[in-house]
Amino acid sequence: MNMNGNGHGNSILSTFTERQPEIATAKVLRHARKRAQSVAATLTRKGAAAASAELINESVNVLIALCYETDGNLGRVNVDGDGKLLVPSPWGRNGRYRFGLRVTEADVLRLHCYRLQEVSTPAPLFTYDPSVRSWFLNVFDYAEYAQAVSYWKKAGMDAGTYRTLAETVRNQRTGST
Length: 177
Known about the structure:
two-stranded antiparallel sheet; mainly alpha
């Protein structure tokens, strides 16, 4: 039996290593790949949660780069003037596959983003408007790319948060509390 107790420790590492380059298509954080590989070296539940958190953070950093991509003087090309995302998000049903996230990872990220909206300070980077069923980039508080990256660096996912939210997601799916 391998370190994670279910006999699949080596497959987790190989799956992680195979999925990681898919997420890093935009060269946003080159050092994240090395960090993520070192995190994957410990294949306990904590290590697996840390690897998922790293993948989630890298996918959000790619989304942030896409959101701030401009087309000369025309402004941002992947967000409307009011901040509405025009590209799939990593936590969305269509986007999770494009960003290489698993269903649970995307659901955990979505829950994390919802919870970040509940905190008044600092203002969340991404907000959901149920009336139009769309996610928005907070272009008012985070007008610059560097501000958005700085926010996510502080508010992003860590292994402990991932484990806690993954448990919540599992409980929601099974109907237990």
